[in-house]
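Supplementary Methods. Inverse-folding protocol.

Structures were first reduced to a discrete structure-token string of length 276. This string, shown here, constituted the complete conditioning input.
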């Protein structure tokens, strides 16, 4: 293989690596949190006491949605559905409310039996929220569909109880720790964002057009170039750069190098023809 060809092959090998680094950064810094929601997204940093008070089950629903995927047992859905249809009033169909009616009490009982020291009331309702929303994505049109949806949500919650409980506990642990850190914890629309790197997550959100209110940290500002501030209020946020930009720069440099190599190879071919 000629020298120029070897360089071209090596340069082409660098380009996907750089783009892959960009892609990995885009997917990772904010953890398991979907920011594609209807309406506006209000993201803010919270610190210390007010922050810790928000480290509760209802703040972990978005972070745990889609994590636990055990399927409801048919016997549970059928048993629940028979009772539900007998009591169903077509004029009062509300899938989400109906799902909670079938879900809350059994899940509270399951919580009290498995984790008696837990805040079982809020824990159960928050877990039911996760699975009831999923089962009620399409509003039911009659009692049979209504009961099928709400019973599926209730039974799915019970089937996923241990997994959900562990997920909520993990997020609470991370939330409590981040609230005590100078950087604080990130919440979007009241939901805790279990970010692997809060500073990188803020910059990533800025790239998506989502502004994060960091006023709780004092004189700190964040944009696509990173976060800057003065004094102790800026602790944990200063000199933050976006890895994705570094990856893009590397990709651009690789492509520029490839262009230079192709130009050199073209000139060499022309010179060889003249000599011939």
């Amino acid at each position: 293989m000629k020298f120029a060809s070897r360089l071209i092959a090596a340069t082409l090998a660098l380009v996907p690596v750089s783009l892959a680094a960009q892609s990995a950064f885009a997917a990772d810094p904010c953890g398991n949190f979907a920011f594609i929601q209807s309406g506006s997204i209000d993201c803010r940093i919270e610190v210390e006491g007010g922050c810790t008070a928000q480290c509760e089950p209802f703040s972990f629903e978005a972070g745990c949605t889609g994590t636990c995927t055990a399927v409801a047992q048919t016997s549970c859905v059928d048993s629940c559905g028979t009772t539900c249809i007998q009591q169903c009033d077509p004029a009062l169909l509300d899938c989400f409310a109906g799902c909670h009616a079938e879900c809350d009490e059994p899940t509270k009982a399951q919580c009290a039996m498995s984790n008696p020291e837990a805040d079982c009331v809020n824990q159960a309702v928050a877990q039911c929220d996760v699975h009831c929303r999923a089962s009620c994505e399409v509003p039911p049109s009659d009692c049979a569909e209504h009961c099928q949806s709400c019973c599926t949500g209730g039974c799915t919650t019970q089937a996923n109880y241990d997994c959900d409980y562990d997920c909520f506990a993990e997020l609470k642990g991370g939330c409590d720790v981040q609230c005590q850190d100078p950087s604080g914890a990130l919440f979007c629309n009241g939901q805790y964002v279990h970010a692997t790197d809060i500073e990188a997550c803020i910059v990533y959100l800025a790239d998506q057009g989502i502004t994060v209110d960091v006023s709780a940290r004092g004189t700190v500002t964040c944009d696509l170039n990173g976060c800057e501030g003065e004094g102790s209020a800026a602790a944990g946020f200063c000199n933050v750069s976006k890895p994705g930009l570094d990856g893009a720069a590397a990709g651009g440099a690789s492509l520029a190098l490839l262009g230079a190599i192709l130009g050199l190879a073209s000139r060499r071919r022309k010179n060889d023809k003249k000599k011939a």
